[in-house]
Structure formats: C-alpha cells, structure tokens
Amino acid sequence: MKSFIDAMLREDLAAPRKQKHTISRVLERPAAEHDFELVSCTTVRDYMARRRPELALEAWEGRRHLEGVVPQTKQPGEEAEVDFADVWPDLAGQRRKCVLLSAAVAESRCAAS
Q1: Where does the pLDDT of residue 112 fall: very low under 50, low under 70, confident under 90, or very high at 90 and above?
Q2: Comparison of pLDDT for 113 and 22, the residue scoring more
Q3: What is each CA distance from 14 to 20, 35, 59, 79, 107, in whole angstroms?
Q4: pTM for this one?
Q5: Tally of helices (H runs) and strands (E runs) in the chain
Q6: H/E element holding 53?
C-alpha cells in the first residue's frame, strides 16, 4: 500500500496544485483498483503528510546536479532591464489605457536577497 501511495504522490510532484491527490482520492483508488479497504483515513493522512515533503526532496536531489548558478559580476549601472506593461487607471472618472515603463539597473554586489 505504501508504494502505491508513493506512486500517486510522485505523480503529484508534476501536477498542478488543483489536480493533486486528496486524502479521500487516495483512499478511493486502492479500494477501486485493488479491493483494498482496510486502511483508515487518519493513517493515510499522517503518511501523506510525512511522505509528501520527503518525496519532493528526493525529486529535487535527483535534479540538483542539473541545476546550477552562473555567477555574474556587473559594475554598478553597467546593465539595465526595461519592461513595458499596459495599466488601466481611472483618470477624471474615466478608465484610460496607459503604458507603464519600468527599469531596473543591475547591481550584482548588493546584499539584498
């Protein structure tokens, strides 16, 4: 039963939040697919609460060597990022389309995180 639940939880790692298995769905599937109805809701809930973070960590550890960081050093003001966006403020009682320009100057040596 544990391996069956683990398989469902591994599927959930790539699923959108609204499509993840709930406790009731985890209880339904073994009953429907394997005629297994001897597990309690509390047992499944406690197991899922413990295993979800463990499986997420295992999946992350497996990908960790593929992820990396390339350090960048830039002099203050050497590079900048610019972006445009449409905004719709109410001006003089009427909704109007305006274009917002945002700019950020790169400074890689700052202590902000």
Answers
A1: very low
A2: 22
A3: 9, 27, 10, 35, 35
A4: 0.48
A5: 3, 4
A6: helix 41-63
Taking a C-beta distance cutoff of 8 angstroms, is the pair 27, 42 a contact? no
Of 79, 81, 15, the C-alpha closest to 52 is 15
Q: Tokens for 54? A: 């463990």
20 to each of 3, 47, 52, 75, how far by Cα in Å? Answer: 17, 16, 11, 45
Q: Which two tokens stand for residue 29?
A: 């599937």
Q: Which two tokens stand for residue 113?
A: 């995180």
Look at phi and psi of residue 77 and say left if phi exceeds 0, alpha if psi is from -120 to 50, else beta.
left
pLDDT digits (tens, 9 = 90+) for 68-104: 666 667 777 778 888 999 999 998 989 999 999 988 8
Please tell me the total number of residues recorded for the chain in this structure. 113
Phi-psi domain of 101 (left: phi exceeds 0; alpha: psi -120 through 50; beta: other): beta
